[in-house]
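Fresh eyes needed here. Kindly weigh in on this sequence plus C-alpha cells:
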Amino acid sequence: MTSTAAALDADLAAILDARLKARAARTAFELFEGADQARIDAIVRAMARAGTDAAEELARLAVDETGYGVFEDKIVKNLYNTRVVADALLSMRTVGVLWVDEGARTTAVGCPVGVVAGIIPVTNPTSTVLFKILASVKAGNAIVCAPHPRAARCCTRAAQVLAQAAERAGAPPGLISCLDQPTLSATRELMTHDAVTMILATGGADMVRACYSAGKPTIAVGAGNVPCFVHRSVPDITEAAVMVVTSKAFDNGTACVAEQAVVIDEPVADAYEAALEAAGCAWVDPSHHPALSALLFTERGGLRPEAVGQSAVELARRAGFSVPPSTRVLGIRLDSVGRHAP
C-alpha cells in the first residue's frame, strides 16, 4: 500500500468512526430523553467525582502529549471544572419547568437539544472535555468530542473516565464518546452529521469558521487577545501587577482569557512597570525583538504552534537570549500597535 493510499484509508476509517459515534450518541439520547432532574444530577455528580479523581492523571497526559502548558496548572484547570463548575451546574434546574412568571403569564421549560458535537482545542484539552461533557449531560444531551489530533489520547481518556462513571450511574452506553482518530475530515463529518443537533466549539479561527458554516446552532470561541488598562486611580499597583503576571503565566499563557497586552496610564507607568518586574516580568531588550517576533509569529501575523504553551525562559532561549530562571513572563515596551508590531 502506498503512503497516499494508507493516508486515504486512515481518513476513511476516521470518517466512519465519526459516523458510528454520532449514530450511537443519537440512540443513547433517545433512551436518555425524558430523564428527570434527579436522574441527570446523579449522573453529573458521579462524573464530577470521577473527573476529580483523575485530575492529575489527565493533566500529565495532556502535558506529555501536547507539549503545552504546566502540569500543576492543568490539574487546577481540571479540578476547577469537576468541582467549581460541577457544583454550579448541580445548583441549576435544566429540564422540565424552570420558572413561572404568573404576572407575565410565562412559563420557561427546559428541553435537551439532542446530540452535541464538542470541538476540543490542543491548548486546554482535558479540562475542556470535562467541561463540555458535564454541561451537555446536565442539560440532558448526548455528546461526541472531537479533539485536536495532537491531543487525541488525553481527550479520549478524559471522555472515557466520565463515560464509565456516567454508565455506572445509569446513563445509556454511547451517551458520551470521543473520536479515536480525529482528523479534519472526521471532525467535519461529525459536525454536519444528521444525528448532531448542536456544536460547542473551542479552537482556532479556521475551526470556528468551519463550525459556523456547518449548518447547526453553534456556540464557539476562538483565540483571545485580551488587553488590560491600568488607570492612574488603581488602588494597589503591586496587586494589579501580580494579578496580570499570574494570569498570563498560568499554564504558560494557554488560556484565551490571559492578558496579552497592558496599556498603562502615564502617571503610574514607571511604578507599574517596576511592579511588573518585581512580579516576574523580564523586559526584553529591543535588540532581541526581531528574533522573538520571528519565533512567535508567522509572516502573516499568525501564532506559530510550536511556540504556544512554552515558558518564558524557554521562549527566550529559543530566541537566542537569556532571562533569569525565575522569569514568569516576557515584557516588551511598545510605542505603537498594529500589524507592524505583533
